[in-house]
Design brief:
The complex is a heterotetramer of chains A (275), B (324), C (351) and D (149). A 7-stranded mixed β-sheet of chain A has the order 10-9-8-7-11-12-15, with helices on both faces. Chain A is an alpha/beta fold and 275 residues long. Chain A has 7 helices and 15 strands. Chain A is 21% helix and 31% strand. Chain B has 3 domains: 1-108 and 157-177, no CATH class; 109-148; 179-324, no CATH class. In chain B, the strands form 2 sheets. A 5-stranded mixed β-sheet of chain B has the order 2-1-3-4-8. Chain B is globular and about 60 Å long. Chain D is an alpha/beta fold and 149 residues long. Chain D has 4 helices and 4 strands. In chain D, strands 2-1-3-4 form a 4-stranded parallel β-sheet, with helices on both faces. Classes of the chains: A alpha/beta (275), B alpha/beta (324), C alpha+beta (351), D alpha/beta (149). The C-D interface holds C 261, 263-265, 268 and D 63, 143, 145-148.
Chain lengths: 275, 324, 351, 149
């Protein structure tokens, strides 16, 4: 019997970082200490713990990292709570990669890129941003707009401040929802901030965050003159199999786990809006 | 009968007593009965149906419908009125929004029974004395009405309406139903025989939840079998244990509240005689705690919510020869 | 090449096949209950139109164990206990159920292949059974299925106390060749062909008298969004009880769930049938995109009649077996939905 | 099939649900008095005998119990006034139903044991274990997925 998609492999969690009060980043390698599989930025993996549950989690680390994979996970449900409570050295089950990933080597190539993320929505974009940074010459200017509820809810803040902000031809704009002490940056919601910053329509935009944020950010971009075909997002649906068979992530004729999770708003416009 | 019902429904809609009527309509076949809410007299005249196949109990639809704006008229067969009362007892209906019309019933038929008897290609059915005459593409076929009836109708417990605002037709009587005969037959078997019987029946269960969703007594907002945290939710792998567990617990949860309307057995796509579980509880309750018919009166205290301090049987009665 | 055998030799035919490989036939357990069971001498083949469960159960069983896990401290051991299936034969599958295998194949055998399904599928030889007495609930012809000439690896007709057998695929022909048909006094001749033609004509004539004969599904691939937003769904779904009967009796419904069972000595991961009619089907920590029965009901029928055809060159995910027509507790079935869609489309064009 | 044990070493597995106020204290008393009761009995403490959901009993059988016994305060003595009156009605019906489904009625039992009845607790358990040993292993509701091997 050949090995296949639905049987998970064992991964070891080697490092756990507390990013924000409810987000931790988990570093995972195979039992042999090597990276479990290669992926495209934006792809996901099914993480599970026997008897607890299984969930589709986007891979946060860039494919260019050769030693391990990382997952930034917010504590929201049964499985994620369990993951948050575990200690390094714990083995978990992992299968993947699933999904189409971002068109980093086709549509995005040579383009100026605008990344817009809210809250834990940074996780799937993190992988693309670092991939683009690693292959810096293949892409044009990079803008990142990232917002969260408060300063302590900003995921990967240190990395952004220490690395991204120093990257050549790359601007990072941070914002938080409400004023707070010790924050001298921008205050306001992401969609408004994007409008204010008035990005040129020559950029290709990639949005990820809560549905409300995506909705209003898209409207803002449209006002700035962006067309739906140059705005991409990555979708979220309940998933079980990851290979387009179990039926629950079905939207129109597409399966989010297999044909997505990355869609341009052009493609989404052709689908029923049930997501 | 159908014409009388349509006439009355139209009157009620026209004079503004109600703004909707809950009844039945069909699709391509005369037996394709779907409970339907009619919003206008025109709609009623065009689509309302009442025939020998209108078995569906409308009471459960009232849980949602009675919460809506305006009054709704509903046609209730005698057994449906018991469910209605039980739902009232459980405070699930908004009575002031309901105009209940009792209608007579002399037993309902499922097309499934005709199909199972090998009658195919049915185009129409007529009553001819004690027989049903089926017009099929393979010629005319006869079946006795008694044999074609659902089991629950053959052993009908009551043709009396226990609640209504208005009664169409004549009132019936509570019947001596012999509905516990089959339960007694099972009780007379050895444990091994009973186990094998139920194993055979329950192992067919596909866990579709039709029995639960159609049951007027199963009206919880969130069923224990839908709660992922209960560890028993609807999709627990179907094996011998889980199937038995589901049906025992479901029967137990409706024990003392089940009016024996028989919808569970009617809708089971695998033809599992689920009424035999409910009737066992009803029979035991009758024997131990006195005759009790759920839904007979509004506001009755369920025997499983009540107790007596010194007269109740000890559980050891089961070991000492069982409840007979 | 069609072979004819006297119908009273059917038990011998079945015995011969069962000596070659595991054989499953539909059996009547009672007047109401017919199921596929492993053949044993003495078992009589059912001639009912539909088994209670569809034949999808063979490849996509209600419950399928997937793997076992043992946890010890921080370690997890994965135990893949699958074995390669043995060849087996399913005898007496009706035309509608045979088509359902094609529909399931396009899901489970599409890249990446579902090996659980593939393992059961590729070892099966399907001998189909032509319908001689279709019922009014049958509408397989609406989807281009010929009830009188089913597909499969081999097919069988039964008419006037004679069985007619024909191999179709290589696998089916090979199986028939291995049988000792001479011992059954089988005759392969022109008369058999003529008889079968006459039988097919007879059945086609009967079908024309059925009320659903004129039912034809519309090609709605271009109208996806219009139908999705149509007002018909509210009225249709209002009546739906939200049980999963239709999905579980349906030969083409293929949604499943993956769950873990902790037996106390290790965890078993299994997959089981699931239904898009259930509210927890798409439930996530943040809520569900299909909030009411309307969305769930719409999803099921849109998938069968619109989404699946878009993905699969116009092939519908319904075979007209009529199980949902017979089993839905409130008879809210796919025919009513198809008709409502059609009426709605006519209203659209008028306006 | 039901009546024979597979091997010589088989010992019955008994689950006893004991109410916190009477029967559990009764078991405690048996312990402090150094009275022996069979080790086959695994006690699960519950706040009141009426806390016992029928599913608890089925789950016990699923996971390989051969008998289930429920111990509560004597009727009239319930810490919560009426709990055991409800237990009495519910369990009577449930046991009758289990019997109806072919789970031998001897495998389930309710006993009233007060906090002062240490000896009675021991006698009840001795008797129940003896009864189950005679009946043999219970396979009828056992879930194969819960077997050790």
């Amino acid at each position: 019997m050949r090995n296949e998609e639905l049987i998970p492999r064992v991964g070891v969690v080697t490092q756990i970082r507390q990013e924000t009060p409810d987000v931790k980043t988990f570093r995972v390698v195979g039992t042999d200490g090597k990276k479990l599989f290669e992926h495209i930025p934006g792809q996901c993996a099914m993480l599970s713990v026997p008897g607890v549950g299984e969930a589709m989690i986007s891979i946060t680390s860039s494919p260019t990292v050769e030693e391990y994979m990382e997952f930034s996970i917010k504590k929201v449900g049964v499985l994620t709570s369990w993951l948050h409570a575990m200690e390094p050295g714990q083995e978990i089950l992992i299968r993947g990669p699933y999904g189409n990933g971002f068109p980093v080597d086709t549509t995005f190539k040579g383009r100026d890129l605008l990344f817009i993320a809210g809250g834990i929505g940074l996780a799937p974009l993190h992988s693309v941003i670092n991939y683009v940074r690693a292959k810096r010459d293949n892409y044009g200017h990079i803008d990142v707009v990232y917002g969260s509820r408060s300063k302590e809810d900003l995921v990967d803040l240190a990395e952004m401040q220490n690395e991204w902000m120093n990257e050549k031809d790359m601007n990072v704009y941070l914002t938080i929802d409400r004023e707070e002490q010790g924050w001298d940056g921008h205050v306001g919601f992401v969609p408004n901030y994007v409008q204010e910053l008035n990005f040129p329509t020559s950029e290709t935009a990639i949005i990820c965050g809560p549905p409300v944020m995506i909705h209003f950010t898209l409207q803002g971009l449209q006002k700035l003159g962006f067309t739906n075909s140059q705005v991409f997002t990555t979708m979220e649906m309940r998933m079980k199999c990851g290979i387009g068979k179990c039926g629950r992530c079905n939207i129109g004729d597409k399966y989010v786990c297999k044909d997505g999770p990355v869609f341009s708003f052009d493609e989404l416009g052709e689908l029923p809006d049930e997501y | 009968m159908q014409d009388e019902l349509i006439k009355r429904a139209c009157e009620l809609l026209d004079d503004g007593t109600v703004n909707r009527v809950l009844g039945w309509s069909t699709g391509d076949f005369f037996y394709d009965i779907t409970p339907t809410v009619f919003g206008s007299a025109e709609d009623v005249k065009k689509n309302f149906v009442y025939n020998d196949f209108c078995g569906a109990n409308l009471s459960k639809y009232l849980i949602a419908e009675s919460q809506k704006e305006g009054k709704i008229a509903v046609f209730l067969k005698p057994c449906d009125t018991y469910s209605f009362n039980q739902l009232m007892t459980e405070h699930r209906l908004k009575r002031e929004n309901i105009y209940a019309i009792g209608i007579p019933c002399d037993g309902k038929v499922s097309a499934e029974t005709l199909h199972d008897a090998g009658i195919h290609g049915i185009l129409g059915v007529k009553r001819d004395g004690d027989d049903l005459v089926c017009d099929t593409v393979y010629g005319s076929r006869r079946m006795s009405f008694d044999a074609a009836q659902d089991e629950r109708c053959r052993s009908c417990k009551s043709r009396r309406h226990v609640v209504y605002d208005e009664l169409l037709g004549e009132e019936g009587e509570v019947l001596d139903s012999h509905r516990f005969d089959e339960v007694e037959k099972l009780e007379a078997m050895t444990p091994e025989e009973r186990f094998n019987f139920w194993q055979g029946e329950l192992s067919r269960c596909i866990r579709c939840n039709a029995c639960r969703n159609v049951c007027p007594a199963c009206n919880c907002e969130l069923c224990v079998f839908d709660n992922p945290k209960s560890g028993v939710f609807s999709k627990a792998a179907s094996n011998d244990f889980e199937d038995a567990n589901f049906h025992i617990i479901r029967a137990f949860h409706v024990a003392g509240r089940c009016t024996d309307c028989g919808e569970c057995s009617r809708v089971c796509p695998e033809h599992i005689p689920l009424h035999l579980l409910n009737r066992k509880f009803i029979k035991d309750i009758d024997t131990l705690y006195g005759d009790y018919q759920a839904g007979e009166k509004e506001g009755q205290m369920s025997p499983l919510s009540a107790f007596t301090e010194d007269k109740d049987a000890e559980p050891s009665i089961v070991q000492k020869g069982g409840i007979r | 090449m069609i072979t004819r055998i006297s119908a009273d030799r059917l038990p011998d035919l079945l015995r011969q096949i069962s000596e070659l490989e595991k054989l499953y036939i539909p059996v009547d357990k009672s007047e109401k209950i017919s199921v596929f069971e492993e053949y044993a001498p003495g078992k009589v083949m059912s001639t009912k139109l539909n088994t209670l469960r569809s034949a999808k159960d063979f490849f996509f069983p209600q419950v399928q164990p997937m793997a076992k896990f043992r946890m010890e401290g921080k370690k997890i051991e994965v135990i893949d206990s699958r074995t390669e299936a043995q060849d087996y034969c399913i005898f007496g599958v009706r035309a509608c159920d045979v088509r359902s295998f094609d529909i399931l194949d396009r899901v489970f055998l599409a890249d990446p292949v579902d090996t659980y399904y593939e393992n059961r599928r590729k070892h099966a030889t399907i001998i189909s059974f032509a319908c001689s007495e279709p019922s009014e609930t049958c509408f397989c012809h609406s989807f281009g299925i010929d009830a009188a000439k089913p597909a499969g690896d081999a097919r069988m007709w039964m008419a006037n106390d004679i069985i007619y057998l024909e191999g179709i695929s290589e696998k089916g022909k090979a199986l028939l060749e291995k049988l000792d048909l001479a011992a059954l006094d089988a005759v392969t001749d022109e008369k058999a062909e003529r008889d079968v033609e006459a039988e097919e004509r007879r059945v086609h004539e009967i079908q024309q008298k059925m009320p659903l004969y004129r039912l034809t599904p519309a090609d709605n691939r271009e109208k996806e969004l219009a139908i999705f937003h149509s007002p018909i769904w509210k009225e249709l779904s209002d009546k739906c009880l939200g049980c999963g009967s239709c999905t579980f009796v349906c030969p083409t419904c293929q949604c499943f769930d993956i769950e873990d069972f902790d037996g106390g000595h290790g965890v078993e991961r299994y997959r089981c049938w699931d239904s898009c009619m259930y509210k927890d089907f798409t439930m996530m920590a943040a809520g569900t995109p299909r909030k009411t029965q309307l969305e769930r009901f719409r999803q099921r029928f849109m998938h069968k009649l619109v989404y699946y055809p878009i993905r699969n060159d116009g092939m519908y995910s319904c075979v007209g077996c009529g199980r949902c027509l017979r089993r839905c507790p409130i008879h809210m079935n796919i025919v009513k939905v198809m008709k409502a869609m059609e009426e709605d489309a006519q209203c659209e064009t008028k306006n | 099939m039901q009546m024979t044990s597979d091997n010589e070493t088989w010992e019955p597995k008994i689950i006893a649900f004991c109410c916190n106020w009477c029967s559990y204290s009764g078991a405690d008393l048996a312990g402090t008095n150094r009275l022996n009761y069979p080790a086959n009995v695994k006690i699960i403490r519950v706040p009141c005998s009426c806390r016992i959901n029928p599913m608890f009993i089925l789950r016990a059988f699923q996971r390989g119990a051969d008998g289930v016994i429920i111990c509560g305060c004597h009727p009239g003595d319930c810490h919560y006034m009426t709990g055991n009156y409800h237990t009495r009605r519910r369990m009577t019906l449930l046991f009758s139903m289990l019997d109806y489904l072919g789970i031998e009625k001897e495998r389930t039992r309710v006993e009233w044991v007060s906090a002062a009845e240490g000896q009675r607790f021991v006698d009840v358990m001795d008797d129940f274990v003896g009864q189950i040993t005679k009946l043999g292993r219970c396979r009828r509701l056992e879930d194969l997925r819960c077997r050790t091997n």
